[in-house]
């Protein structure tokens, strides 16, 4: 099958020094939890335990919120924006300097290919810190009045799919605007957030400005419901997001939610097919499909269906699945046993509902959590695999005849985070973008991120925007 064999090209894991156990990062120091237990973070590619991390209980979260409050009132809130900027620029530079270490740790803890953590995640993390560092002394010119004020203490909860990038999306704008934060990383991917805590120490960020409380769902609940938190920012599933919105309804807390998606990637008959196929592959197999804005529903115009499918299958047969630290790997490990189970279940349902399943021949490692890149054809809009977020390397393929039908099918979802359009005609791109109910519409590309560009959803994909000038609004009293 293969054109030629690749020799292994492993990135060295010795560039990162993982401690056997980590405490909570509260008030500038690593401390033991007082009322919580411990969790183990594993490498999903080998199931090897990487480190033990503390599980913060309600008392620990309270300590973190108090530390954040004190830092907000005494140090960070009163500090001139130009001084806050210096710290943020320092953090951004340290992220670049320690980029290799961060990339290896991210791939070990999450399972994503080193090619992606090295070339996408970590450079974007640095870019978001640089970008918001630039805003810190220019808030009066951001369009929110001549003296916009911060909100206070932000409680932030993030998922496991882009651990450090989601941290950057949360922490960089919050600090630039003058808030302090208590952040809870996901249970399965806490390690880069803890390395980030070390970077905060290295940058001599004042104690209490950033606090990292590791733990599971209960820790997240304690963060968002703490009465000392002024602003809640959550990225994760729609189900948990809905629970958070209910839990804090009626309080004065401001809330932004970045939730799930089921994006349509729409290929018209005048699109350059090879380029579109690269975009389809990037849209659904990037990061094992653990992407909220993944192009998980492919809509192909009927007249080019056969050509697109043939080319897509040929391309998929070239994807390499395996050791995330190998520099020639395209698809790494599924993040957890639980997520693998969910992908398997929904895929079985897809087959039972009558869709046709196809994967290229592909050898999967024995240990760890793996799922071969998969497509379903003959999918109807009623199928669960066309409606529910699978959050894995599984693509549902549908067809359409007219642009109006493409719009109708694309919008026929409870979500509205992103969409992709592939066509040669600029006028059609604009016509589609006007009608697609999605926060981001990519044209002849997919999964492109930039700190200057706002990102967020319609409908059940959440509310509020992260990134760009809009991303500051969530952290200012406007
Ligand atoms: P999740 O279960 O909702 O978890 C997200 C975070 O919330 C985790 O840190 C989780 O802790 C925590 N959590 C769980 N229950 C909680 C509760 N009751 N109160 C407060 N926090 C709680 O989501 P996931 O399954 O890990 O992540 C995948 C989802 O995230 C997908 O639906 C995806 O679309 C969405 N996502 C959206 C975006 C976006 O920008 N829109 C970006 C990335 C991912 P544990 O880790 O311990 O469960
Ligand atoms: Mg979870």
Report on this model:
The chain is an alpha/beta fold and 478 residues long. It folds into 2 domains: 266 residues, Aldehyde Dehydrogenase, Chain A, domain 1; 180 residues, Aldehyde Dehydrogenase, Chain A, domain 2. Helix content is 38%, strand content 17%. It is built from 15 helices and 20 strands. The strands form 5 sheets. Strands 14-15-16-13-12-17-18 form a 7-stranded mixed beta sheet, sandwiched between helices. Strands 9-8-7-10-11-19 form a 6-stranded mixed beta sheet, sandwiched between helices. It has a 3-stranded mixed beta sheet with strand order 1-5-4, covered by helices on one side. A hairpin with a 2-residue loop joins strand 2 and strand 3. Helix 2 runs antiparallel to helix 4 and helix 3 packs across helix 4. The longest helix is centred in the N-terminal third of the chain and has 22 residues. The chain is globular and about 65 Å long. The termini are far apart. The model has no long low-confidence stretch (mean pLDDT 97). The structure holds NADP nicotinamide-adenine-dinucleotide phosphate (NAP) and magnesium ion. NADP nicotinamide-adenine-dinucleotide phosphate binds next to helix 7 and helix 8.
Give a quick precis of the structure.
InterPro entries: Ald_DH/histidinol_DH, Ald_DH_C, Ald_DH_CS_GLU, Ald_DH_N, Aldehyde_DH_dom. With 478 residues, the chain is an alpha/beta fold. It contains 15 helices and 20 strands.
Broad CATH class of the largest domain: Alpha Beta
Estimated radius of gyration? 22 Å
What's the CATH architecture name of the largest domain? 3-Layer(aba) Sandwich
Molecular shape:
globular
Distance between the termini: 59 Å
Strand order of the largest sheet: 14-15-16-13-12-17-18
CATH topology of the largest domain: Aldehyde Dehydrogenase, Chain A, domain 1
- Percent of residues in helices: 25-40%
Average pLDDT score: 97
> What percentage of amino acids are in beta strands?
15-25%
Give me the count of strands: 20
Instruction: Catalogue the unreliable spans.
Output: none
User: Which ligands, by name, code or SMILES, are bound?
Assistant: NADP nicotinamide-adenine-dinucleotide phosphate, magnesium ion
Structure annotation, total helices: 15
Largest sheet: 7 strands, mixed
- How many structural domains? 2
CATH evolutionary superfamily of the largest domain: Aldehyde Dehydrogenase, Chain A, domain 1
Structural class: alpha/beta
Active site: 258
Keywords: Oxidoreductase
GO molecular function: oxidoreductase activity, acting on the aldehyde or oxo group of donors, NAD or NADP as acceptor
Family: Belongs to the aldehyde dehydrogenase family.
